[in-house]
Amino acid sequence: MPDALSDLLPALVAFRRDIHAHPELGFQEHRTAALVAAALKEIGLDVHEGIGGTGVVGTLRVGSSDRTIGLRADMDALPLQEATSLPYASTRAGVFHGCGHDGHTTMLLGAARYLAGTRQFDGTVNFIFQPAEEGLGGAREMVKQGLFDRFPCQRVFALHNWPDLPAHHVATRPGPIMAAADKFEIVVKGKGGHAAMPHVTPDAILAASEMVGQLNTILARRIPPMATAVLSVTRIAGGHAHNVIPATVNLGGTVRSFDPVIQDRIEASLRQVVEGVALAHGVAADITYDRYYPATINDADAAAAALAVAAKVAPHIQIAPEPAFTSEDFAFMLQVTKGAYLWLGQGANPGEGACSSPLHHPHYDFNDAIIPTGIRLHVGLVEAHLKAS
Ligand SMILES: [Zn+2]
Ligand SMILES: [Zn+2]
């Protein structure tokens, strides 16, 4: 890569650390979005703000081809207290770039800067900076507000730093790469009464306990053994006194899956199990089941093309043997546009002692050493898809 990239790095690292120190939660990324928009304008891109809340799109056209590509980064931080003592640690209590979106934003901005200078392609690049990836569906909002109608993209790609892979290594896979995420809430309703008179009071605690046990049989007994999914009950709350049977008990949890048929089956089984147990115990149960993120499904050709690009810029590439059970709202973009989601390693290399903390861990930090690799990947994707003739 020409010197141009190394010249850009000091300012990019400073930018990354600045937004790390000033993190913003989903749909509140006003400062970050303004910095991104200003930087994109400075390098001459056509900049559009306020898409899907705080989303920003910068467009760079070179040549006369009608080919198009989108590259996406997420800008939001997590509601989590940072526990590092870094000089650029979060200045905002309880808000923290614990997933490395500060790094993603920086790498995409770096790619825009680099490509605006070198212009070795023929077509249109849309640099998509999205809000609210962490559970709030910023990508869905941008798509709803016409992202791909206003900024057509034949292919769209996104990178996520990956602590489990050595730094600079790249992995992706055809088909599912991140899980669909559902959440459920169950309110078990009895009558409430004296604990010494259980025969006149349906026991919401006992019913809820049995529901937890039965819900844990769904994956073992209701879906095919070769299918992969997770169902975790993560919350149970009810009661406040030793001598009172409570009137209500609340249960909550999550379901992760990769195949919509399996997802349907799990939801239907959950409803059946909860209603059946409730009936047996003489209680009622209100069920709220929310499918908040679909599975992230890579287009096979786009994933293969991305790995071919990665092979030129990364020391090691691999087809990931299995998807991750975490979820990603880039899924909404891949539902309407072909593309792929890639993991960029940021962990320890063989022989190194230090290792990156996992994503969403209070000691996590984005590894600035991978910024150039991320930029080369973005640039490679553009130069491959929009090949200058
Ligand atoms: Zn995250
Ligand atoms: Zn993330």
TrEMBL record:
Question: What are the residue boundaries of the Peptidase M20 dimerisation domain, all occurrences included?
Answer: 183-276
Entries under Pfam families matching the protein: M20_dimer, Peptidase_M20
Where is Mn(2+) annotated to bind? 99, 101, 134, 160, 360
Stored CDD domains: M20_Acy1-like (cd05666)
Q: Which SUPFAM superfamilies does the UniProt record give?
A: Bacterial exopeptidase dimerisation domain, Zn-dependent exopeptidases
MF terms (GO), sorted A to Z: hydrolase activity; metal ion binding
What keywords is this UniProt entry annotated with? Hydrolase, Manganese, Metal-binding
Q: Which InterPro entries match?
A: Amidohydrolase (IPR017439), Bact_exopeptidase_dim_dom (IPR036264), Peptidase_M20 (IPR002933), Peptidase_M20_dimer (IPR011650)
What does the record give as cofactor? Mn(2+)
Q: Cofactor stoichiometry and binding?
A: The Mn(2+) ion enhances activity.
Family, per entry: Belongs to the peptidase M20 family.
What protein name applies here?
A: Peptidase M20
